[in-house]
């Protein structure tokens, strides 16, 4: 069964707090018409922001990459206000932020003098218990564009991949490009081989995950060697552990991998994943 999701009561749209069903954008909004917008999802543990600066920084970097002139950091107070207005001040939650280039007659080039459309809302998330999950995942062809480093609202290829996984009862996809694992449909991938951790380099083929970068820092603290190198499907036989990371996923081990109809991997170990989960838990739950 697909997980049940709910609308937030209230959203922030262009400076106003509105009931979710009263918040409207123009049909000519470029995020609606062209997917011409950037988004972020930033977590709160017990109502406390975690890595908010890094999330706003990535939002700013992505906006700059597509020349949307907007100060991402100006949203910081609104992000926090969203949490308190939603009554999530001491709960686990996340804030969705979307910056669209704005409303303009449809063109393939960037229109001039357009006012950005800002949408933001808080929603509760179950962040507890991630350490008890163990995911079965599906290998899917990475059919996305060549700028996966940009956190664009145009997520159709990710959505198509994930629908294939979820409708077949899998928890997530592992995407492959020319036989190499890139990332999940909404997560980053880590592989453990010979006690070393491998993850795809932060180039245009993946989104540079904030959780990914934090996990790389944790590995350094724990003296676990990390190699930013793509792993090929044929290397799976040598892999002992695989885990996925993401803002709402946190750190979840991969139990099995299926490719088409065939089981191509079953987890052999879990030691490194468990060590990382433990320190991740301590850091995110620090009072
Ligand atoms: N997804 N890769 C992709 C394609 C993603 O969409 C995400 C996050 C990640 C993990 O990034 P981070 O650690 O910064 O969350 C990797 C978000 C949560 C989403 O689309 O809802």
UniProtKB/TrEMBL annotation:
This is D-alanine transaminase. InterPro entries: Aminotrans_IV, Aminotransferase-like, BCAT-like_C, BCAT-like_N, Class-IV_PLP-Dep_Aminotrnsfr. Belongs to the class-IV pyridoxal-phosphate-dependent aminotransferase family. The keyword Repressor does not apply. GO terms for molecular function: catalytic activity. Pfam families: Aminotran_4 (PF01063). Keywords: Pyridoxal phosphate. GO terms for cellular component: cytosol. GO terms for biological process: amino acid biosynthetic process; carboxylic acid biosynthetic process. It comes from Salegentibacter echinorum. Its cofactor is pyridoxal 5'-phosphate. The keyword Cell membrane does not apply.
């Amino acid at each position: 069964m697909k997980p049940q999701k709910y609308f937030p009561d209230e959203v922030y749209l262009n400076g106003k707090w509105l009931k979710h069903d009263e918040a409207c954008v123009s049909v000519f909004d470029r995020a609606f018409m062209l997917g011409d917008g950037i988004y972020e999802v930033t977590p709160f543990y017990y109502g406390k922001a975690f890595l908010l600066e890094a999330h706003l920084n990535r939002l700013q970097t992505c906006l700059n990459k597509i020349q949307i002139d907007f100060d991402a950091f100006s949203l910081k107070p609104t992000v926090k206000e969203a949490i308190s207005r939603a009554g999530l001040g001491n709960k686990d939650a996340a804030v969705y932020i979307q910056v669209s280039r704005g409303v303009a007659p449809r063109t393939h080039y960037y229109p001039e003098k357009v006012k950005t459309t800002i949408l933001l809302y808080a929603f509760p998330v179950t962040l507890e218990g991630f350490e008890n999950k163990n995911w079965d995942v599906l290998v899917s062809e990475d059919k996305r564009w060549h700028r996966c480093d940009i956190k664009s609202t145009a997520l159709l290829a990710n959505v198509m991949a994930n629908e294939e996984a979820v409708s077949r009862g899998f928890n997530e996809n592992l995407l492959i490009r020319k036989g190499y694992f890139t990332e999940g449909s909404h997560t980053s991938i880590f592989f453990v081989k010979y006690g070393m951790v491998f993850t795809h380099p932060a180039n245009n083929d993946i989104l540079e995950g904030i959780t990914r970068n934090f996990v790389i820092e944790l590995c350094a603290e724990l003296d676990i060697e990390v190699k930013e190198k793509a792993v090929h499907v044929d290397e799976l036989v040598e892999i002992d552990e695989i885990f996925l990371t993401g803002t709402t996923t946190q750190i979840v081990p991969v139990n099995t991998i299926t490719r088409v109809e065939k089981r191509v991997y079953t987890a052999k170990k879990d030691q490194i994943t468990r060590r990382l989960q433990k320190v991740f838990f301590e850091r995110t739950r620090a009072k």
